[in-house]
Amino acid sequence: MSGTYRGAPAFPKAAEASTRDRQLRGNLRHATHTIRAKRARAVAELGDWAQLRAAGAAIKDHTLRHLDHYLEQLEAAVTAAGGQVHWAVDADEANRIVAELVKATGETEVVKVKSMATQEIGLNEALAEQGIRAYETDLAELIVQLGDDRPSHILVPAIHRNRSEIRDIFRSTMGKWGRPAPDDLTDSPAELAEAARLHLREKFLGAKVAVSGANFMVAETGTLVVVESEGNGRMCLTLPETLISVVGIEKVVPTWQDLEVFLQLLPRSSTAERMNPYTSTWTGTTDGDGPQTFHLILLDNGRTDTLADTVGRQALRCIRCSACLNVCPVYERAGGHAYGSPYPGPIGAILTPQLRGTASEVDASLPYASTLCGACYEVCPVAIDIPEVLVHLRERVAEGGPATRHGTKVTIKPARGHAAERAAMRAARWAFEHPRALRAGERLASGTRSVHPARLRLPGPARAWSDTRDLPSAPPEPFRDWWQRTRGARGGDGGRATQ
Amino acid sequence: MSSAGSRDIVLGRIRRALADVPRTERPQDVPVERTYLRTHGERSERQTADLLAENLADYRAVVHRCPSGELPVRVASLLAARGSATVVVAPGVPQEWLSEAAGVARIPDSAGQTAHELDSVDSVVTGCAVAIAETGTIVLDASPDQGRRRITLVPDHHICVVRLADQVVDSVPQALERLDPARPLTWISGPSATSDIELDRVEGVHGPRTLEVVLVEG
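ok -> structure tokens follow
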């Protein structure tokens, strides 16, 4: 189950199973509803939230327009401050660089700060193949790792587990990874946190190498920022001798001042706090304080392909707060695993098919994993119009068209599964281009309305769709006939008459 | 360790991806509008201090206030109440802060000290670089009165002294103006916590589980 997402089933198939899991749905409903109300309160405290949100979007868009410039500036600043910068085109290259850097230290174990980028590239599995053991230190990542499970939420990867499941995982598997859980462990969250503290402490105090991601990188100063709660981030960023940070190229912001926007937007959107318990910033290395060797790996892995799409590139503004997951009716019912990627929920539905392309069954299904209700756009702290990108990607899946893959322009073929949809659209287009036929059809529908069934069962693959929908009721008189009868005498330009 | 080729490939892909951006456009040609507020409300010095205390306490930091003359007695009483036998002290912490804590062994912050040794120390006493009232945050910048980052991380009890006269700002934007990005910074808002179990906040994971902030007046 853990690690790779290769061969994941399409979203509807995965969701068909997960929506029947009552335990999962109960856990998700409880957790997402808890955070929703809290987030709304935290956001309401700031009267200028709309202005902060607009500035956050503007800073990200500004950076993306000149991403090459800012990455070169960042590289120079990090290098000047004592860090070493590496570039990785894809996941394999990033994993190879990390493995080589760890081997060069002579160590076979690393401690990890929670990082979406390293989840995305499957770093832990790649390191394991090289004989290097990676210990996840974020509480939720620890729960996922001990349970041989996959993350299902950006902020709280073990959101699908409730407290008693977590206790069972700790009791049965902690001993295999290090200090076992106490025999009398209960399911109180405080006791579970204490068990994790004791289990991980021996790892932190002896760790020589740490791997992290970063929430932000400041181009002008070469500063990296990690925003966290538990202190596991501080442990990893402070105690080891070597620090390796794997960061997506879209995480760069131009100036130190820009942090004043994101350090207000992120904590309130993600954990619904005025400020998260700990934020660490570091610029290269500092003599005698913290890791004396620092490597930064700048990761592409599909980001430049996403950047090439002028509609889809707004997904690169994402600061991984997960507010969109917490308000999404589809995510709440289907759960994170159904998205077949470390990025679940609405943002995952637009990010994954852009980072990985739409060739696989699951990736082609993700733009459809939404009701287009727009709640995700409302809460997004950097105003990503997720419904707009979803519709754009649906069009790419159904109609095909130009896209960029691995830096090369390609033409996507229309997906096979959408033949009925395309046929319906062609029929609609023909009807609208032939007014006489449209009028005849409308009159036929109105004339026969007394014998219309409540539901019209369609044959073949359309049956599941038609079985769950009422047939729209036809009006007694088509609108165009009514218009002609009541306003037509005024010369056919009735719109002006009503102004 | 990555080939120079990868750097060129990524930068080349970015430039091709941005074909819609005019070639002559420079980064400074695309200004960002900053219409958001520098602070959220007008406050007197006293009101700012009260808000800081309120927000620190809201996230379970233990807040104390005292005149500067009483600080040594206050620090001594906090260490005694905790039952601390040992305290690690940053090199630049004023001698008088601990002048009344006679029974507590002072451990200097030294480069040779291992994390395991630090783990056996009961408490740590530091100053701070700046405190933010609107968020209830104290920021450490590893100055001599705060020491290396590890000393405020490994011990389970942190006493942080904040001078109300000149170390408190209202907002996050004001704090960033004062801070030096070249220094390693640690922003602390309450003791270590997690929301990882059912998205409900629980205090006390890896960082100090007890954070006491002494706000010094005058």
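Residues 22-44 of chain A form the longest helix (23 residues).
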